[in-house]
C-alpha cells in the first residue's frame, strides 16, 4: 500500500528540494496533540483483548485520543495512523512513519531494534541542570532547548524540543511585529542561553538555609 503525500502547490515553487529545505517550516497542528497524548494505556473499549494497548495516533482524527489495534481497524481503517513505540519507557516513533508528514530536520534520530526512531518528548535528565551541563560538556553536540548531549550534529533531542523552538521563535516574531513588549520571558531563560547559565547559577542551588535573601541588590 502506498502512502502519497499531497503537497500544497504553493510550496512547489520554493525550490528543487522535496520539502526538506528551509529551517523553519511550520509544524502541523496535530504535533502538539501527539506530544501531549498518553500512550500505552489499556483501551477502555477492548479491555479483554490481547493487543489492547493504546499506541496508535490518527493524523486524520487528531482530536481523538490514543487508540488500540482493534479501534484502528474499526474506526481509522483508511486514515493516516502512526504507531508509537517504546524505548526505555519513552515514547518513540519510527522515522519512516512520520518523515512524509512532518519536517523532522534537526531532530536527533536513534537506531532502536534496527529501525530509525525519534523521541517524541524531551527526556528528564538525571540530577537536573548541573548534571546536564556536565554531560553536555562531554559531547560536542547538544539539544538547543534542553541541552541534552546528542550523538550527532542535530539541533534537538526530540520532536518536543523542536516544537518548543518553533513556537518561541514564532512568538518572538509575532511580538516583534506587534511592537509590544517581549513577554517570552520564562521560556527564553529556560531554553536560551543554556551554556552561559550553567556557569552563572550557583545561587539557585543553595536556597536551603537562607530563605528569600537576595544576594545582590537590584
Ligand atoms: Zn480499542
Ligand atoms: Zn482516524
Ligand atoms: Zn531537548
From TrEMBL:
Residue ranges with Low complexity bias: 174-192
| PANTHER family, sorted | OS11G0428700 PROTEIN (PTHR31065:SF56), PLATZ TRANSCRIPTION FACTOR FAMILY PROTEIN (PTHR31065)
Q: Which InterPro entries match?
A: PLATZ
Q: What is this protein called?
A: B box-type domain-containing protein
Origin species, per record, is Leersia perrieri
Superkingdom of origin: Eukaryota
Q: Where is this region: Disordered?
A: 1-20, 174-218
Q: Where are the transmembrane segments?
A: none
Pfam families in UniProt: PLATZ
